[in-house]
Design brief:
The radius of gyration is 10 Å and the shape is globular. The protein has about 60 residues and is α+β, with helices and mostly antiparallel strands. A two-stranded antiparallel ribbon has the order 1-4. Helices cover about 25% and strands about 20% of the residues.
Length: about 60
């Protein structure tokens, strides 16, 4: 699975990076980015929780 962040939608709340730093980080402009190319199966629940908790709905996941 791959996680993507819509940088146009991301407002820099950093919830994803604060909650799941093993998957997400924030750049100097306070925009989130994914630092794991492919999410291992055991982290899929974490990615889904990050998607659900993003106030801007800027995170998505695909295969």
């Amino acid at each position: 699975m791959r996680v993507r962040i819509d940088l146009d939608a991301c407002q820099g709340h950093s919830r994803c990076a604060l909650t799941y730093p093993e998957i997400f980080d924030v750049d100097d402009d306070a925009k989130a980015f994914v630092h794991v190319e492919n999410i291992p199966p055991e982290w899929e629940d974490k990615a889904l929780m990050a998607i659900a908790n993003c106030p801007e709905r800027a995170i998505s996941m695909d295969e």
